[in-house]
Amino acid sequence: MVRTPAAVVTAGEREVRVSSPDRVVYRASERTPQITKLEVCEYVAAIGATMMRTIGERPTAMERWPDGWREGMRLAVGPKDSGADGFYQKRLPRGAPDYVETVDITFPSGRTAAELCPTEPASLVWAAHMGTLTFHPWPVRRPDLDHPDELRLDLDPQPGTDFADAQRVAGVARELLEELGLRGYPKTSGHRGIHVYVRIEPRWSFEELRHAAIGFGRELERRDEGVTTKWWKEERGERIFVDFNQNNRDRTIAGAWSLRARPGAPVSTPMTWEQLAAVTDPRDYNLTTVLDHLADGDPWADMDEQAYSLDPLLRLWEALPGGELNFPPDYPKMPGEPPRVQPSKKVAEHWDDDGNRIES
């Protein structure tokens, strides 16, 4: 078998070597032709300077699909899931070029890692060459890794709901943010959901950021019965879930302008509120169309011009009933957290409020 010679992609002032350039990363779909590894790297090079505005200087996990992505492939659910096709790379692999920088981050467990910290577009192209489709940046920038500078509101459609439902709720979210004196910047998730970012002053902890997201979600629930902050899936119903836990330390969502591992190479696409309201199908925003969308100007170009206070949202957290909510299962038990027992299981097996099973 004859291997195709490596190609070279120019990113900024650097040339990045791309091996196996003709490897198929995305098969042809109803919206897009077949897309190769070289085309993925060329897309990242073309979008790189714009992406750096949102991802630059941030610890960034790489969602890697070394053999490309096809329907039926599976993303690893943990480090021991050796049979998966894709995986999250939180520690920079050996052999990276000198210009690919890292930052030392600390996980909730206390473990540390040297994670990718993009400082120029070439580092993003190198990551794409390594099979990265989706970049997952933290909401912090070095050197201050303990104080987030952005709130991320993840509007996640549950079974029985779709993008149009998330679109409606996003409109309510915009009104609420504006009432509170905050400006939100929306983007498609690259699937059915919508993400709204708010640039904030980097002086609050991750725990406070999460409480701000809960406060926002609870007020949104009061305004729209199609919204929920219920952590347990069995309680959410056919509503849009405000995933407050995405604001925890080491919790990330798909970065702006990132490709997603789905048919048609969709992109998590930043938009103005008016552009978002006009979307009929988020799949229309993909590797083959997003550069045309960006030709009208970066919808998030002025995001860094003003940073806001979290106080209005923290006041909602304090004022609205409900108290603390569950953390993800890999987190240590947190102060005030409800029992980590599914409600149906708690009733069936007689668990007390501290999460201890009561013997019959």
Automatic annotation (TrEMBL):
DNA ligase D polymerase domain location: 36-300
Region feature (Disordered): 327-360
Superkingdom classification of source: Bacteria
Amino acid composition bias (Pro residues), ranges on this chain: 329-341
CDD domains linked: LigD_Pol_like_2
Biased composition (Basic and acidic residues): 346-360
Record-given protein name: DNA polymerase domain-containing protein
Record organism: Janibacter alittae
Organism placement in taxonomy: Bacteria, Bacillati, Actinomycetota, Actinomycetes, Micrococcales
